[in-house]
Structures are given as C-alpha cells and as structure tokens.
Design goal:
CATH topology of the largest domain: Rossmann fold
Oligomer: single chain
Strand order of the largest sheet: 4-3-2-1-5-6-7
Number of strands: 12
CATH architecture of the largest domain: 3-Layer(aba) Sandwich
CATH superfamily of the largest domain: NAD(P)-binding Rossmann-like Domain
Radius of gyration: 20 Å
CATH class of the largest domain: Alpha Beta
Bound molecules: NADPH dihydro-nicotinamide-adenine-dinucleotide phosphate, magnesium ion
Shape: globular
Number of domains: 3
Strand content: 15-25%
Distance between the termini: 48 Å
C-alpha cells in the first residue's frame, strides 16, 4: 500500500489522480491533500477518501472545515502545503507525493518532501522552471526519484527505460499548438479569454490552457526537460504535432527514434508515475486506434509565430535567475489576462519587459529565488492592475 500525499487535489491533474486512486484501493491510499479555494469539492473529496490531513488556502476555510470534520486535521497557506508533502502520522510501506498545484507555490513543499526522501510525481512544472538547479541538486543529495507526470516528460522517461543516457542524441518534444494554432499573429490581436480557454485536444486548468495557447507551456516544458533529463538546450527540439498522439520522442546516437504514443488522457502518465516501476491496468482508458488515426502529421516550430517559446529557450540558456523571472512574469501575466486586464499578446510583452529589466544572478540561492519571484510579480501587478 502506497500512502499518497496530493498537492492540488481539486484541480484537473488532482481530480484525475483521485480517479487513479479510486481504481486501485488495494494499492493507493489518500493520506493527505491540499486544495485551494474550491471548498465544495474539498468536502466531496474528504467524504469519499477520508484522509487524515487537509490543507486549503485560507485560515477561515480551514477553521470552518475543522468544525465540520473534527476527526481530520486541517492546515492552510504555504505551511499547510508543506505539511501535506511531509505528513508522517500514518504508517505505510511507501510514500508518494504528487505535486499538482499550479505555480511556483509548489517549490517549498517539493524541497521538503525531498528532505523526507519521498518519491515525487511532478506535474507542477513551474517548480522545476523557477528553481530546477536547487530541486535536482537536492534530489541527488537525498537519492530521491522525481517521476515526471507532464505527458511529454513521462513519454521521454518511458522511451529512456533500459537505455544508456550517454547514447541519447536529442529529445524531441511534441506540441499540439494550443487553441490558436491556426491563427496568424494579426488574428491574435483581438482574441478573448474564452477563445484562449478552448483547447482542442486536452481539458486542463486555466493557466496551462493559456500557456498552451501562447506556446509558453512548451517553453516551460523545454526547461523542465533540461532539468529532469540533464540535457543541454541545443539537444531539446520541439515540433508541432497537432494530433497529440505521439507524446514525445528520443533520438539516439545511431539515429533510431523511440516514440511514446497514446490517447490524450492524463491519467495514463499520472498512473505511470504512481505505480512505477510497475505498470498496471487503467480502466476506461481508450486504446489508440492507429487505423483510425491513419497518418501522423508534423510541422517545424515557428519561433517568430511563438515568441514565448523563444523567450523560454533564451531564458533557459541564460540560466541563473532568468527562468525564475520568466516563470513569475508569466504567472502574473496569465493571471492578468484571465482577469481581462491585459490582452493575449500582452502576456508576451509583460514577460519580455520583466526579462529585459532583470540583472541575472548566476546560481541563485533559495532565498534569492523567492525574493525575485515575489518582486517580479509585485512590479507587474503595480504597473497593470
Ligand atoms: P488547476 O488550475 O486545474 O488546479 C490547480 C490546483 O492547485 C487546484 O487544486 C487549486 O486549488 C490549487 N491551487 C492553485 N493555486 C494555489 C495556491 N496559491 N496555493 C495552493 N493551492 C493552489 O491546474 P492543473 O491541474 O491543470 O495543473 C496543475 C499543474 O500541473 C500545473 O503546474 C500544470 O502546468 C501541470 N500540468 C497540468 C496538465 C493538465 O492536463 N491539467 C498537464 C501537464 C502538466 P482550487 O482549485 O481549490 O482553488
Ligand atoms: Mg505537457
């Protein structure tokens, strides 16, 4: 029995993780989880899974819940997130933390879980973008496995099973193109929040759906792959593959390419990470019908059409504190766009401005990262709110 500590249970990845747990009650037990502001869904999850510890964003909500469920412990805020990741009141054979919160708030709980030597399934890419060097260094120090949940990285991880990492020539990350893949730059000028939230292939949380439309998501994924697979940026390629059937590929020294194929269902990579190294049955997952698919289509990536992807490569190559700025500025910009304070193309402008104004710090410490993250957001909010 694996004890599961789930950060972000009320989100898109979180609820799909609960579905995997629901299917395998003999293998997984939800011990602790965090939610944000969706208290109604929090109650539904509590009643179904009877966890021991739950954390929410606000103290007021935590108080209300503890009156309703006196047998459960409640926490709130960033301390609560850390408690979920490190909760150790329930004995178990194995402990697995799944980080599915949105944004760099996932950083501290991830670092603390590593110190507890817990295996971590990481959907929360912003944590690796904002402080990849610290997370990977700590994981190495404590001998902790970080198992990717993002579909592209799970695909690459699976393509690498049993392979010699020294024989890898490059990683090839596929991109569906997001909601605006058929739009020109001119057409992007007046797109609305509702149009951007309408992703053609995947149903996901609001922030990542906007990131997919701007192609920043692919940029964040390039940085995520750089850290997870210790791969230099010039050996990480991105390619447009609108069907989302190949989830990513690895090319080896002998030019062989291994690809991972499947239907777009996030429960597959979630469960792969949770059950690793075992591969188990997933009910209701649909097999891919290749005869129905017929052909696979690819197109080169156009960096002028998708400047956010280019900015992410550049920030990754610059290294140091640049990816921290890229991530914080993007989180703030997407939030502004979702609240109709800036236009869709405003997102890339806000990120560009923040990167241009930043003096890079090489090898930033945790404190420096937290400070930069906070300052970048504050500056943007002061200017655009
Ligand atoms: P959602 O927005 O659907 O869910 C986010 C979760 O985090 C919710 O439980 C939300 O709580 C909680 N949350 C948000 N902000 C905070 C905060 N400040 N403090 C504590 N909790 C918070 O996002 P997704 O599930 O789509 O994405 C989660 C992560 O997984 C992201 O990093 C994303 O990039 C990554 N990912 C997602 C994929 C997908 O298919 N959705 C695919 C690959 C990666 P509440 O709703 O209760 O307020
Ligand atoms: Mg992805």
């Amino acid at each position: 029995m694996k004890n599961i500590y789930l950060l972000g249970a009320t989100g898109s990845i979180g609820t799909q993780t609960l579905d995997v747990i629901r299917q395998h009650p003999d293998k997984f037990r939800l011990v602790a989880f965090s939610a944000g502001r969706n208290i109604q869904l929090t109650q539904v999850i509590i009643e179904e899974f009877q966890p021991s510890y739950v954390s929410v964003i606000s103290e007021e909500d935590a108080k209300k819940l503890s009156h309703l469920y006196p047998a459960i412990h409640f926490g709130f805020g960033s301390e609560g997130l850390i408690t979920v990741a490190t909760y150790d009141e329930v004995p178990g054979d194995e402990h697995f933390v799944l980080s599915a919160v949105m944004g760099s708030v996932g950083l501290l709980p991830t670092l603390k879980a590593i110190e507890m030597r817990r295996t971590i399934g990481i959907a929360n890419k912003e944590t690796l973008v904002t402080a990849g060097h610290l997370v990977m260094e700590k994981a190495k120090q404590y001998g902790v496995k970080l198992l990717p949940v993002d579909s592209e990285h799970s695909a690459i991880y699976q393509c690498l099973q049993g392979e010699d990492s020294k024989a890898v020539k490059k990683l090839i990350i596929t991109a569906s193109g997001g909601s605006f893949r058929d739009y020109t730059r001119e057409m992007l000028q007046n797109v609305t929040r509702e149009q951007a939230l309408n992703h053609p292939n995947w149903s996901m949380g609001a922030k990542i759906t906007i990131d997919s439309a701007s192609m920043m998501n692919k940029g964040l994924e390039v940085i995520e792959a750089h850290w997870l697979f210790d791969m230099p940026y010039d050996r990480i390629e991105t390619i447009l593959h609108r069907q989302s059937i190949i989830h990513s590929m690895v090319e080896f020294e002998d030019t062989s390419i291994i690809a991972h194929l499947g239907t777009p269902d996030m429960r597959i990579p979630i469960q792969f990470a949770m059950s690793y190294p075992e591969r188990i049955d997933l009910k209701q997952a649909k097999s891919l019908n290749l005869a129905e698919v017929g052909t696979l289509e690819f197109k080169p990536m156009d960096f002028e059409r998708f400047p956010c992807l280019k900015m992410a490569y550049d920030a990754g190559r610059m290294g140091g504190s640049c990816p921290t700025v890229l991530n914080a500025a993007n989180e703030a910009a997407v939030d502004l766009f979702l609240r109709n304070k800036i236009s869709f193309l405003g997102i890339e402008e806000v990120v560009y401005e923040a990167l241009s104004a930043h003096q890079t710090i090489t090898n930033p410490t945790l404190d420096e990262i937290l400070e930069i993250d906070c300052d970048v957001r504050k500056n943007i909010m002061t200017k655009y709110e």
